[in-house]
Automatic annotation (TrEMBL):
PANTHER family according to UniProt: HEMOGLOBIN AND HEMOGLOBIN-HAPTOGLOBIN-BINDING PROTEIN 1-RELATED, TONB-DEPENDENT OUTER MEMBRANE RECEPTOR
Source organism per UniProt: Parapedobacter koreensis
Membrane topology: Multi-pass membrane protein
Pfam families associated with the record: CarboxypepD_reg (PF13620), Plug (PF07715), TonB_dep_Rec_b-barrel (PF00593)
Chief location of this protein within or outside the cell: membrane
Family: Belongs to the TonB-dependent receptor family.
Name of the protein this chain belongs to: Iron complex outermembrane recepter protein
Keyword Membrane attached: yes
Single Gene Ontology BP annotation: siderophore transmembrane transport
SUPFAM superfamilies with a match to the protein in the record: Carboxypeptidase regulatory domain-like, Porins
Length: 774
């Protein structure tokens, strides 16, 4: 209650303060676009400053920028700067709103500077958009996508042991989280709790999170939010550049090596390319007191991109392959009911495991191929058209310990092929109005590969989805409004045989209308208020409808319900923010009602015994649920070199149909960070910092007794230390970093870890990172 009162007080103070922030004579606006003077293509990421006043903004993915609340009869100087271009300065005396085109000229190339022209994913929404900073990415580099986003307030992880993690946004995960991988909707077998996103984080440089229900803009399944990973724009200068990353992780004795090369093509203006690859290998990791057997990982990824830009058009081709083999903790697969109950009571494995690199059954092997072709067209009027085709092939194999030498045969062998076709048109700014409209088509085919000598967990199925949307924006000097509507239709046709060779499945059709309404209010240079109400939906997955078997990777026996309905989520997000001087505060308050919420309910005391062991039983159920919570992020500059950061997340979720708590909801958590920018005077060393972090995760006390195999674990405190520096190596740069997570080697359990019944989480993790850019 005390935390809730503090958040309420902050919001109330924000509202009162903002009432007095406006100035009558400062209501003018400068709108404009930055383009390359040679190609006339828009330039993203250009820094534009307006003096006096200290106004600064970055041009978006289509080159647009906008300053508001500028004053009449003030002599302003507008300055645009970008690497590889000459800076441009324009004097202005404002007496009315201005619309400008800033054409930047190529500068002289010094030390192989690289020019980039790109159409980055432009995120324009009334919902809060949070970005993972480059420093935060560097501190968890070499880990999973979920680890990267868990550095943001409101994001945690659903874990299956130590090798698999999925992002959880405000209590939502799995198919309720839509992931855009380089502009393509990521489609794998993400329905499984232990099916992590098949994305190599080294491909991307930009990591963004949208917390609201974004069903209109991005389609079905965006109930809980949207994760966006984007690579940097390709260069156009014909100079070879790239980077090399090397990481060592002491826990697991693992190593990661990732490299990237890119360049424009000499003699062909506008043609550029990039290749990238990553190799990762680690062995058994350890808790504070013991090794976890069979927790090694072997991962090999590659990607390639080509872009051709001409006048107002651009063509992109992209391909990536993600391949991983990872072990599943052996201690989660046990023999008898008495044995599994004893292990849950003990809370740790009975066996002693040595360190080893071998990956044996139970294990997973996943290969994900993604291809993309995209055409972008910028109109002279300021409108733009995007047409994109994507194809993905996800091949998932799960292996278990089998008799008669059959360990080489997978228990599950599934191939999911997904094709998408997207078209989006954005009109130019007509006065104060801008419209975006588009359509999305998706075709999926899932096949179980024969020869496993095992009944598939889910059936073969075909799925087709068609959707169309329109979004209207009103852009004023101090506020913007957005109204969107969308319609989706999905047909799902499944066919499979159960263990008794009975045919099951059939065709089901789902359709729904999504909508959103929201706005952004900027009453002054220090305050901003966002608010958005969104309706999103998702159809039940194949496993929720039809699973009736052992899910080997999760070490669970899952039972679906063929009569499940679609989920419908209604989410309201209010996000005030304040930035002034040494203080920055971001607060996200949200409430969500989910009709026909689908979840896997543990069945305490119910176990299924097979020839491969004894496993807990989880049944898919449906109810109406509510989610309420708050995410807070603050920064305070204590001095020129010292910065304090506080982030906190609380969530309350209930099954309102039965008036009980929902299972597997993240516990409240608080993060403190103290960052010291070390004032070194060396010309060869820059941006040296040391960061101390404390994480406090409370015990999840909002659960129903006797509805789980073990009660939620106690609260825990973790401490971490990060340090880094950038070193000049000739004309290039070497970024060095050291991290120590769980520095005190604290034994703890995370409630959101499905293997907390059998083991603790990771012990001390020491990592060393080297990143060389040239």
């Amino acid at each position: 209650m005390r935390i809730q009162k503090i958040f309420t007080t902050i919001l109330f103070s924000l509202f009162l303060s903002s009432v007095y922030a406006q100035t009558e004579n400062c209501t003018l606006t400068i709108r404009g676009r930055v383009v390359d003077s040679d190609t006339q293509l828009p330039l993203a990421g250009v820094t534009i400053k307006a003096h006096p006043g200290g106004h600064q903004i970055i041009s978006d993915g289509h080159g647009y920028f906008r300053f508001s609340q500028l004053c009449q009869d003030i002599h302003y100087v507008l300055t645009a700067t970008s690497v590889g271009f000459d800076s441009l300065s324009i004097p202005l005396l404002l007496d009315t709103d201005e619309t400008l085109t800033l054409a930047l000229h190529h500068g002289h190339i010094v030390l192989h500077d690289v020019n980039v022209v790109g159409h980055q994913q432009t995120v324009s929404t009334a919902n809060p958009v949070r970005t993972v900073s480059r420093e935060q990415v560097a501190q968890v580099q070499g880990k999973t996508l979920a680890d990267i986003f868990s550095t943001l307030p409101g994001v945690s992880m659903l874990q299956t042991g130590t090798t698999i993690a999925k992002p959880v946004i405000n209590g939502m995960h799995g198919n309720r989280i839509l992931i855009l991988n380089n502009g393509v909707r990521q489609e794998g077998q993400q329905w499984g709790s232990e099916h992590a996103p098949e994305i190599d984080p080294f491909i991307a440089k930009d990591f963004k999170l949208i917390k609201g229900a974004e069903g209109v803009r991005y389609g079905a399944d965006a109930i809980g939010g949207v994760i966006i990973t984007s690579p940097p724009p390709l260069p156009i200068d014909p100079h070879l550049s790239g980077e090399l990353n090397a990481i060592y992780q002491a826990n697991g004795r693992g190593g990661v090596l990732s490299g990237m090369l890119q360049s424009g093509v000499k003699g062909i203006t506008g043609l550029a390319w990039r290749v990238q690859g990553t190799a990762k290998r680690s062995g058994n990791v350890s808790t504070a007191d013991y090794y976890l057997g069979n927790t090694g990982v072997a991962e090999y990824n590659a990607s390639a991109a080509v872009r051709y830009s001409h006048t107002h058009s651009a063509f992109d081709a992209y391909y990536s392959r993600f391949h991983t083999s990872l072990g599943i903790f052996t201690g989660a697969h046990v023999g008898t009911i008495a044995d599994i109950q004893a292990r849950i009571e003990a809370g740790e494995p009975f066996e002693t495991y040595p360190f080893a690199y071998g990956i044996n059954a139970p294990r997973q092997r996943v290969t994900h191929d993604l291809g993309k072709l995209k055409w972008h067209r910028d109109q002279a009027s300021g409108g733009s058209l995007d047409v994109q085709y994507g194809i993905q092939r996800n091949h998932r194999q799960e292996y278990d310990i089998r008799r008669a030498g059959r360990d080489a045969l997978p228990m599950l062998d599934m191939v999911l092929t997904t094709q998408t076709l997207d078209a989006t048109y954005q009109t130019p700014l007509y006065g104060k109005w801008r419209t975006q409209a588009g359509t999305n088509l998706t075709l999926q085919v899932n096949n179980n590969v024969p020869g496993t000598l095992n009944t598939p967990l889910i059936p073969n199925y075909d799925s087709f989805t068609a959707g169309a949307f329109a979004i209207q924006r009103l852009i004023e000097n101090t506020h913007e409004w957005e109204l969107g509507i969308r319609y989706d239709f999905r047909t799902f046709d499944a066919a499979g045989f159960d263990r008794y060779q009975n045919l099951y499945g059939g065709q089901r059709d789902f359709h729904n209308v999504s909508g959103s309404f929201g706005g952004v209010w900027r009453p002054g240079n220090t305050w901003q208020l966002r608010s958005n109400i969104g309706l999103a939906w998702r159809a039940p997955n194949a496993n929720e409808l039809y699973s009736n078997g052992l899910h080997h990777g999760a070490a669970l026996y899952e039972i679906g319900d063929a009569q499940l309905n679609s989920e419908h989520g209604y989410k309201w997000v209010v996000s005030p923010s304040y930035t002034r001087g040494s203080v920055a505060i971001d607060l996200d308050l949200y409430g969500q009602y989910v009709q026909d919420y689908i979840y896997a309910q543990p069945s305490p005391g119910e176990f299924l015994q097979t020839i491969r062991g004894t496993f807990p039983v989880f049944r898919y159920e449906q109810t109406d649920a509510t989610f309420f919570g708050a995410d807070l992020s603050t920064k305070y500059q204590l001095s020129h070199d010292l910065e304090y950061q506080l982030s906190a997340s609380i969530i309350r979720a209930r099954d309102i149909s039965n008036d009980v708590f929902l299972p597997y909801i993240p516990a409240d958590r608080f993060n403190h960070r103290l960052r010291w920018q070390v004032p070194l005077t060396s010309k060869r060393t820059t941006e040296t910092y040391i960061t101390f972090e404390h994480r406090w995760v409370l015990q999840q006390k909002r659960y129903e007794p006797n509805t789980d195999y073990a009660p939620p674990p106690p609260a825990y405190h973790l401490f971490a230390l990060y340090a880094g520096s950038k070193l000049a190596v000739g004309a290039h740069q070497l970024d060095v970093g050291v991290s120590v997570n769980n520095a005190l080697n604290t034994p703890y359990r995370e409630y959101m870890n499905r293997f907390r019944y059998y083991s603790h989480n990771l012990g001390r993790e020491i990592g060393i990172r080297l990143s060389y850019s040239f």
